[in-house]
Amino acid sequence: MNQQSASEPPMGWNSWDSYGTAVNENAVLANARFMHDYLLQYGWNTVVVDIDWYDPTAKSHGYNADAPIVLDDFGRQLPAPMRFPSARNGDGFRPLANRIHDMGLKFGVHIMRGIPRLAVERNCPILGTEWSASDVADKEHVCGWNPDNYGLKPGHPGAQAYYDAQVDQLVSWGVDFIKADDMQVPFHADEIRAYASAIRKAEQRYGKSVVFSLSPGGALPTTHIDFLREHAQMWRISDDLWDKWSVMSRGLNDACVGAWLTVCPGAWLTHASCRCHSTVGLFLGRS
């Protein structure tokens, strides 16, 4: 990966901790304005919209089975227009990204591993290929806590093509930071590699750098450290930490021992316990 995309640990705000799955455009802009006015001068510069921005029925926490998520004809997620009105004309996140960029900030989004189940149900074509969503979906390797997606078949050329098309659309909107979830526990090396490849292609096409952040954690990163350094700039080293001392203690003891030794410029940990609600990662924030 282009480690210059994160030569310093990115600092910013992620919508999950305050809004769960239900953040909307007004809330994103309000937080962006606060960051511009009070935090940008200290290096806080990244605004990230977390999970389920494509679900018009999203609730503050938890996930909706069979959600009527918003997709384009090629099975790629689109912002739910009732939550993000500037997306109503088919421009996706471009208008919102432009407003955030105008404040001197960077814009990021969360995305789940795999392909939407609704895209498979509709058998959407994969952009620029002879394959469809049902050809590339891996129904055996699905997320254990979110019902939105199936996995993608490792090594299938149509799976790479789907990630290429998805990432190309995100970067064309002006996305600077991609948090890819359900990648590390269990460790999906093929899908991490495919997503990293898609990001490199989009960076070359649009002439910009994109930070690639992996989630969730749950195990020491030393097992896959060389692979992670090659394919991403940030990765989680702990599971979600909640307001229980037993959970906090386990996270600190299991995740931190030895983890700091893996840090180098362009390859940063995102630990969930050193909790600060105004952060993208940098060892901070459950997001």
Describe the structure.
The chain has 287 residues and is of the alpha/beta class. The protein has nine helices and ten strands. Helix 9 (245-256) links the parallel strand 9 and strand 10 (268-270). The protein is globular, with a radius of gyration of 18 Å.
Element layout with pairings:
Blueprint: E1 12-14, H1 16-19, H2 25-39, E2 46-49, H3 94-102, E3 106-112, E4 115-116, H4 117-122, H5 133-136, E5 137-138, E6 149-152, H6 157-172, E7 177-181, H7 189-206, E8 211-214, H8 225-231, E9 234-236, H9 245-256, E10 268-270
Parallel strand pairs: 1-2, 2-3, 3-7, 7-8, 8-9, 9-10
Antiparallel strand pairs: 4-6, 5-6
Helix pairs in contact: 6-7
Mean pLDDT: 87
Return Rg in Å: 18 Å
**Oligomerization state:** single chain
H/E topology pattern: EHHEHEEHHEEHEHEHEHE
> What percentage of residues falls in helices of 4 or more residues?
25-40%
Query: At CATH's second level, what is the architecture?
Result: Alpha-Beta Barrel
CATH structural fold name: TIM Barrel
CATH class: Alpha Beta
Terminal residue distance: 22 Å
**What are the segments in which pLDDT stays under 50 over at least 5 consecutive residues?**
271-287
Shape designation? globular
Could you give a short account of the major beta sheet?
7 strands, parallel
State the CATH superfamily name: Aldolase class I
Pfam families: Melibiase_2 (PF16499)
Family: Belongs to the glycosyl hydrolase 27 family.
GO molecular function: hydrolase activity, hydrolyzing O-glycosyl compounds
InterPro entries: Aldolase_TIM, GH, Glyco_hydro_27
